[in-house]
Design goal:
Layout: H1 2-13, H2 21-29, H3 37-72, H4 81-118, H5 136-143, H6 146-172, H7 174-178, H8 185-225, H9 230-241, H10 244-265, E1 271-274, E2 279-284, E3 294-300, H11 302-313, E4 317-320, H12 322-331, H13 343-356
Parallel strand pairs: 1-4
Antiparallel strand pairs: 1-2, 2-3
Helix pairs in contact: 3-4, 3-8, 6-8
Length: about 350
């Protein structure tokens, strides 16, 4: 028997269940999401080389103009504090023109890659210092863990894919490469630039393919890490619903408050219809509030006796009508008007009450 209990505890603690929505939300708030850094790198490189492939001519003109202006003007200027300030400001301005668009494209590509993977997420939880990160024992475990082997395999695949992609580009343009020695410096630089952009685009697409595979692995690993045991799910449900004892106490207090409010309405009732011993229904007719009489209190057994006691103390008329009392108790709720089928019977009761009180 003891062995069976231990086995049940083991299986209850084993993380075999998918994470609940609350668990996923809590993990997301902590910055724990399925994300591949390789996707960011691949998309950023692809965007940068794509931009360079389109805007290389524009950047080349600015670079040549900057060197020409430097050789024609800066080399002939005397070295003074004012001239150095001018040179620095103009150089910074040219660098912004040349490198600014590239950096902007890289920034937008990085933001797009993150948004595609995890959506909008802003949290500072990963930036908080954690002592467990400098724990040497856990550090050794991370080094020799399965994830380390996966990262090693990814690095080997990256080198292989990038090398293969660049080799294919060079081999397909081998004639241009062999003719470089016969070209002028400007033509050779142009050919090298075009080949570099082609190799960059090919390598970026190869990395993007690997990044997609890595994202699938990261998603699988993330789902595995956030799995829950049956006991975790029970504890989460208990925390969400609250302690059953506290919950029952709150419901009891709510019932007591509702009963007190109901009893406070009894003295304002026009009539109390009784069983006479088991049921009591207090009715009131206020044409400014509702078009039909409505229930202000109802009860059975002990509660019915209490309603009749309060009604007697406040001189509220009580009428014995067994079938009507039972039917109203079953079909009418507190605060609601009586059902239409009881209009005639209740009207006769109220007419009797008004005659007794000389209100007609």
């Amino acid at each position: 028997m003891r062995r069976l209990q231990l086995d049940l505890q083991f299986f209850a603690g084993e993380k075999t269940e998918k994470a609940t929505p609350k668990k996923r939300q809590d993990s997301r708030k902590k910055g724990q999401v399925a994300k591949s850094q390789d996707v960011n790198t691949a998309i950023s490189l692809l965007a940068i080389f794509g931009f360079l492939f389109v805007g290389a001519a524009f950047m080349g003109k600015h670079i040549l103009g900057f060197f020409r202006h430097s050789l024609q003007n800066y080399m002939l200027m005397p070295v003074t504090e004012a001239n150095l300030k001018i040179i620095v400001l103009e150089t910074m301005q040219q660098l912004i023109y040349i490198l600014g668009p590239v950096m902007l494209v890289a920034l937008l590509a990085g933001l797009a890659a993150n948004y595609l993977q995890v959506g909008f997420l802003l949290t500072g939880e990963p930036l908080k210092p954690k002592l467990e990160k400098i724990d040497p024992i856990k550090g050794f475990k991370r080094i020799f863990a399965l994830r380390a082997l996966v990262e090693l395999l990814k690095s080997i695949l990256k080198i292989g894919f990038v090398g293969t992609a660049t080799f294919i580009v060079l081999w397909s343009n081998i004639e241009e490469v062999l003719k470089l020695s016969f070209k002028s410096v400007s033509d050779a630089l142009q050919t090298v630039g075009v080949l570099t952009l082609k190799m960059g685009l090919a390598a970026s697409m190869a990395l993007l393919f690997l990044a997609l595979l890595d994202y699938l692995y990261q998603k699988y690993d993330f789902e595995k890490n956030i799995r829950m045991s049956k006991q975790d799910i029970k504890d989460e449900y208990k925390n969400a619903e609250g302690d059953p004892l506290i919950k029952s106490q709150m419901k009891q207090r709510q019932r007591e408050m509702a009963m007190r409010r109901m009893m406070q309405e009894v003295p304002e009732a026009d009539v109390v219809i009784t069983n006479p011993t088991h049921y009591a229904i207090a009715l009131k007719y206020d044409e400014e509030k509702l078009d039909a009489p409505y229930v202000v209190a109802k009860g059975v057994d002990y509660l019915a006796q209490k309603i009749k006691y309060i009604a007697g103390e406040n001189e509220v008329t009580m009428v014995e009508n067994r079938p009507l009392a039972r039917a109203l108790y079953d079909q009418a709720e507190i605060g609601d008007p009586i059902p239409e089928e009881f209009f005639k019977a209740v009207a006769e009761v109220l007419a009797y009450v008004y005659r007794v009180k000389n209100k007609l």
